[in-house]
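RECORD TYPE: inverse folding
INPUT: structure tokens
STRUCTURE:
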């Protein structure tokens, strides 16, 4: 089973993809994680990716397409995958379709997580991250046991791409670039919409229903 998760940053795609991955037994592929791994390498591509992400802009299509398609060739994905955060533009969606046609694959379902901007800003700007173990907390929904300190003992930080100013830019970019992708998959009859303002458990129930998972 091959499923795409689409929606604005902060909609809970990663959380739900992790849960669905365990339920149906296919890997969760998070493009955000792949890009951050690229950033850490400090290659020219890594520096380009860092500049885009920290300013709230999308990584250029050609770059992210290469990264994702290379990952989808992995032997661990033979039985399927949950692709979280890709495609984000029409060019990416068309490139994915071309890749699937050449590789004898097909997307079974596209699940869109719907979330208002105000809730999005509250969710993302409240995130705090551990720069060492990468654990994520939230000031309101999942605070650290000791204020501003990870369980591993390291001082938490707010990533530049999680600041309120950057979140507003990211949401604007999302609407401009990604909203047409929703329409693209709707025309193909693959799209199912999920209300991401529900509780985590209720969202998961909606996701399973949309994916046809009992």
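DESIGNED SEQUENCE:
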């Amino acid at each position: 089973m091959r499923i795409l998760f689409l929606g604005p940053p902060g909609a809970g795609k990663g959380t739900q993809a992790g849960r669905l991955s365990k339920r149906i037994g296919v890997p969760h592929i998070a493009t955000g994680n792949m890009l951050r791994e690229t950033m850490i390498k400090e290659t020219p591509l890594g520096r380009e990716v860092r500049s885009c992400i920290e300013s709230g802009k999308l990584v250029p299509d050609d770059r992210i397409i290469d990264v994702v398609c290379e990952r989808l060739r992995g032997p661990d994905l033979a039985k399927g995958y949950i692709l979280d955060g890709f495609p984000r533009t029409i060019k990416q969606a068309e490139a994915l379709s071309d890749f699937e046609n050449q590789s004898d694959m097909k997307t079974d379902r596209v699940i869109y997580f719907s979330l208002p901007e105000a809730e999005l800003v509250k969710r993302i700007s409240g995130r705090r991250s551990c720069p060492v173990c990468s654990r994520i907390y939230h000031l309101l929904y999942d605070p650290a046991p000791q204020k501003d300190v990870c369980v591993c003992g390291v001082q938490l930080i707010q990533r530049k791409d999680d600041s309120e100013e950057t979140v507003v830019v990211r949401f604007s970019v999302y609407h401009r670039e990604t909203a047409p992708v929703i329409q693209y998959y709707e025309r193909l009859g693959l799209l199912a919409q999920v209300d991401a303002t529900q509780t985590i458990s209720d969202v998961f129930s909606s996701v399973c229903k949309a994916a046809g998972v009992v």
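NOTES: The beta strands are 2-6, 28-30, 81-84, 109-114, 127-129, 136-138, 191-195.
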